Amino acid sequence: MNLNLLLQLALSGFLLGGVYSLIALGLSLIFGVMKVINFAHGEMMVWGMYVAYTILVWTGIDPFFSFLVSAVILFILGYLLQRTVVNRILDFPEAMQVLPLVGMAMVFENSARIIWGPDYISPQSRFALSSLSVGPLTIDTPRLMAFSLSVIITILVLIFLKKTDMGKSIRAAADNRLGAFLVGTNVNRVYAVCFGIGTACVGTAGGLLVPLMPLSPYIGAPFTLISFIIVILGGMGSLAGAMVGGFIIGVAESIGPELITNIFHGVGLDLDFPHTMKQVVSFFILIVIMLLRPQGLFGGKRG
Questions:
Q1: Which H/E stretch holds residue 294?
Q2: d(C-alpha 147, C-alpha 168), whole Å
Q3: What angle do CA 79, 207, 194 make, to 5 degrees?
Q4: 247, 210, 233, 273: which is closest to 54 by C-alpha?
Q5: Per residue in 119-129, pLDDT tens?
Q6: Which pTM was predicted?
Q7: Where are the domains of the chain?
């Protein structure tokens, strides 16, 4: 087993895990406050990617500098979606909440297909070929920048929720919707802002992912599944759990295939576990956590 290779894979997975954390943070925030699972989460991330890509094509501005535009546009989309669709299904049974949001996922996916086309696109960032060397390890500059910005944005969102009046209103509505209403909080507006922040997080993550992977209208669903796994791993509604879970899944998906391949070879099986099957590792972790700690690592804890 090549230790340097494992360390390199673990580092790359950890950096990508920062972006995973930001994606899962939005999903966990929406669920923690409104008890609604956004099944259109991944498809909204794809829209964030295409917004950043469009800005790159039209103006030449790199996605690492234009991701805030993705955040603003996805905030507006999320705010309007909550006002027009989600607010009407809040008190529905969970099974009935699923269908409208799955329908919205299909709308986002097919709208992206109509606007930008069905083909894969690989935009070139100005930082695409740059890297840093730290001993035997090589740090991909775009991945490092995406990680750093994701962590900064995640921290800013947490500070917003802890320190601002709107953030405190969001937390109050999450803890006791009726109580927040009785003390004069406009709960519907708070919910719309919360949903907008959640979608802005995933839109931001989408913009940061543009230099790291090809774009396609169809990549949203896998990211929705990854977000579910991270949120369940960290604990439903726990923002800290979403952050930690993102790092765990990022590293596990990166080193898992290599470890499994080495295990195969160690027992005399000439088999390779392809990295394209990395989600198998994520689902295995999900099964283990559901069996051993179904409430998640931070189950019952908010923030």
A1: none
A2: 27
A3: 25
A4: 210
A5: 999 888 787 77
A6: 0.91
A7: 3-116+139-292
